[in-house]
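ok new one. same drill as before - structure tokens go in, u give me an amino acid for every spot. 297 of them this time. try not to just spam alanines like last time pls lmao
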């Protein structure tokens, strides 16, 4: 199995860990890592790195993400979504569409978000959801996140449901966003649906369900689903190395700028290939040196 990335459509009921476990069996590959957790109730895009490409996980988790979500006004739960234990119900009378839209739009830009207790973020070496399952609430610090846009807002006043499309940076908890919108409105809210529609270049249109990968495997066409790592960095320049420089790259050594007959920009990321076209590494130019970010050989 070649190294690369497979864009998985995670179905509801599976954890991200479940997806990786099932893929190990389908692909007969031990080195598999996902690029960003999705809650079991959530569906959608989950890029998974295979083989040597698992070294790329850190870079992919930094990418922008897009979600379509729905939440119900008037309720709050311990998990901030519909799967949790109901904590409180509050009336929604007097909260009209104009107020809802105005409140939602107030959450765009850079905002502070308190990490939910039911999350995998660690405090004192222990995951927050482990404390939550013990019935303990620990002190957390708010994290500064960025919501690039919120669009396609639709309101169902009869069922007290609101849906919206959110484009955000890494580390954003959408159920917490829904909860915070509800608190700002004074009635509370619980997330009822979540679909991740995009992670950088990965969208729903080219995502594979696990059942589809099994069909490809059985027909000997599994590699059709695997994207090369360099396909994610189409805007980066490509530099070809001779055999001598290749030896340095294989060992992760930095390269001097005078090794190349091109002008490099500060903090520019470049893709390095050998003279046979094999993708070797991602390097970044800084302080007159090219330094390794990711070695794939």
């Amino acid at each position: 199995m070649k190294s690369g990335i497979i864009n998985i459509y995670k179905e509801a009921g599976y954890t991200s860990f479940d997806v990786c476990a099932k893929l190990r069996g389908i692909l007969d590959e031990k080195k598999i890592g996902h690029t960003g957790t999705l809650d079991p109730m959530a569906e959608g895009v989950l890029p998974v790195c295979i083989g040597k490409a698992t070294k790329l996980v850190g870079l992919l988790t930094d990418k922008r993400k897009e979600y379509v979500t729905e939440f119900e006004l008037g309720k709050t739960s311990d998990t901030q979504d519909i799967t949790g234990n109901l904590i409180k119900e509050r009336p929604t009378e007097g909260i009209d569409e104009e107020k809802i839209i105005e409140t939602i739009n107030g959450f765009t830009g850079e905002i502070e978000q308190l990490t939910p207790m039911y999350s995998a973020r660690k405090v004192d070496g222990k995951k927050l959801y482990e404390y939550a399952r013990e019935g303990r609430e620990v002190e957390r610090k708010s994290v500064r996140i960025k919501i690039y846009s919120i669009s396609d807002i639709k309101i169902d006043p009869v069922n007290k449901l609101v849906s919206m499309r959110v484009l955000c940076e890494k580390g954003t908890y959408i159920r917490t966003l829904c909860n915070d919108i509800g608190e700002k409105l004074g009635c509370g809210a619980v997330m009822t649906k979540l679909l991740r529609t995009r992670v950088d270049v990965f969208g729903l249109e080219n995502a594979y369900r696990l059942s589809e990968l099994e069909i490809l495997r059985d027909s000997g066409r599994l590699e059709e689903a695997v994207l090369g790592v360099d396909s994610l960095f189409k805007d980066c320049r490509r530099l070809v190395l001779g055999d001598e420089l290749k030896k340095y790259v294989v060992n992760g050594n930095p390269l001097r700028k005078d090794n190349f007959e091109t002008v490099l920009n500060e903090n520019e990321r470049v893709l390095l290939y050998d003279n046979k076209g094999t993708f070797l590494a991602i390097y970044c130019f800084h302080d007159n040196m090219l330094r390794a970010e990711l070695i794939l050989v």
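The domain at 4-63+201-230 is CATH 3.30.2350.10 (Pseudouridine synthase). and btw The helical segments are 16-27, 57-60, 97-105, 128-133, 174-185, 210-218, 243-250.
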